[in-house]
């Protein structure tokens, strides 16, 4: 791992790694400007690039580090609950971050584009906190300076103790952290502009997120784009035919099995990867999404998605919460 990188993304992970996370690590390898520190009991079962370092760390140690950093008495919690503790990663993993000027948190249901177009010398000199959203912080891509003010700003979040101690994930890093950063005048905050504005630029400093209905989140006007990863860059092509390079693609809502029918375990060898409302692969242009067979494929997926939502609501009403959560985790097979 090259220690010349100024920023390290911290990725603690509980449980088994889903097959699609291979794409995240593939995209990391095209971004030597950043390192990725994976903290987990289980190493990802894929070939990993040199800038990804797996640090074996048992789940109890991760929880213990977070407890020590926050001063809270913590018991075990889900992998998704880790998100609420992201503002404190700079303290909890300080020994692993000592050689970096910046640290960040991200999700693994993403493919990065060309990060060096964001992480320029001017960025490092003029920024203390960056998040790829115009209004709030996003858990899938936020960067903080590895300094006292940024590492301790989490303690300024209103109600952080109660929310961190709550069993459910409460979006602490996305909703509370930005308010605390905004109130600290010593921290220089940068954000992306709105998604429509960024898509009008030559390079959009923003990620494209697909929601659970296959739509692109944060767009004012609906669109049915195709997003393409090609040789380390991400391109968004709208239904109107305009193509814009963006920072990353976040396939948050496209993780059911029916979104990955065309994915193969050797996908890392492909030069291009396509994402759209139908999930991974398939249609390579927005116009194809409205034609046979991809239009019909999307209709079938929508039926499956609605069935899953309705059956989930019914089970939640009749089963105790803990049993319902265990059943859901077992069916999903991973925790992110």
Account of the 3D structure:
The chain has 336 residues and is α/β, with parallel strands linked by helices. The protein folds into three domains: 7-191, Spore Coat Polysaccharide Biosynthesis Protein SpsA, Chain A, CATH 3.90.550; 196-290, no CATH class; 298-332. 29% of the residues lie in helices and 21% in strands. The protein contains eleven helices and 14 strands. The strands form two sheets. It has a seven-stranded mixed sheet, with no helix packed on it. Helix 1 (21-28) links the parallel strand 1 (7-13) and strand 2.
CATH superfamily of the largest domain: Spore Coat Polysaccharide Biosynthesis Protein SpsA, Chain A
Look at the helices and sheets and give the structural class. Answer: alpha/beta
Number of domains: 3
Low-confidence stretches: 332-336
Instruction: Give, in spatial order, the strands making up the sheet with the most strands.
Output: 3-2-1-4-7-6-8
Quaternary structure type: single chain
Mean pLDDT score = 93
Q: Level of helix content?
A: 25-40%
How many runs of DSSP E, i.e. beta strands?
14
State which percent range the strand residues make up. 15-25%
Over all CA atoms, what is the radius of gyration? 20 Å
CATH class of the largest domain: Alpha Beta
CATH topology of the largest domain: Spore Coat Polysaccharide Biosynthesis Protein SpsA, Chain A
Element string (H = helix, E = strand): EHEEHHHEEHEEHHHEHEEEEEEHH
Q: Give the biggest beta sheet.
A: 7 strands, mixed
CATH architectural name of the largest domain? Alpha-Beta Complex
Overall geometry: globular
Number of helices: 11
